[in-house]
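Recall the central idea of this unit: under ordinary conditions, the amino acid sequence of a chain determines the structure it adopts. In this exercise we apply that idea directly, starting from the sequence alone.
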Amino acid sequence: MLIHSLDLPGVRKIASGKVREIFDLGEHLLLVATDRISAFDCILPDPIPHKGAVLTSISAFWFARFGFVENHVIATGVRDFPAVLQPFAAELAQRSMVVKKAQPLPVECVVRGYLAGSGWKEYQTSQSICGIALPAGLRQAEQLPETLFTPSTKAASGHDMNIGWDECRRLVGDDVAEQVRELSIRIYEAGRAYAAERGIIVADTKFEFGLLDGRVILIDECLTPDSSRFWPADQHALGISPPSFDKQFVRDYLETLAWNKTPPAPALPDEVVARTSEKYREAFFRLTGRALGE
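Accordingly, the structure predicted from this sequence is:
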């Protein structure tokens, strides 16, 4: 079932993001990952089959694996959802989770392990990433000498803005800032090591944390192809931007068009939709060893 947007009659929707719909269940929230895909901060008109299920299933896989950090998950199986959601079982299957209500922190916790994307662009001009000085002579897609924590603000629309460590501490407080930095690096490095055994390089990622009764907990998604840069290890080479399991395939297609990267976004050819769906499902299979839905 393809879902581009979702309303659940009788259940109050409180937010609709680039990918997720959020519903208020009273004590808890319902997060639903649609099949929407965005690029250059624009939501595209064509949904990607299985994308929402892949994102939710990969997040659930990691949440269960990382026992050293508390997360927001209450239930991921529809059969365990409240009775009010049972009439919508077909729409919610695989793509949704019931979660604790936490107060989201106003920062994105970005972790970088390889020189890629905006970090590579900055390094070429200033030999630094987010103001953190790096050795000379590093090449594109090269592993960094150490894992970097480079937080950003969370923008409701448009691009997030990188912030320095001092600004991160000012926004969330010294103690919470130290906790999220330590946890972000630990989760990333544990995920990177596991993925490496399965032929995937996790180049970088971002996490979100929230406060629940004063405790820092991991929320939103975790190490998915939407929040991370996944490279197939057997195609990794220095000096180029490696192919990836994320939506880079879509971005590359859009770059060939005479589109000014403002709404409305152009439609995607069937071939691009199918190939993107295939990449998401392959990422899930490589990480978990099972096909989606098994």
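The domain at 12-101 is CATH 3.30.200.20 (Phosphorylase Kinase; domain 1).
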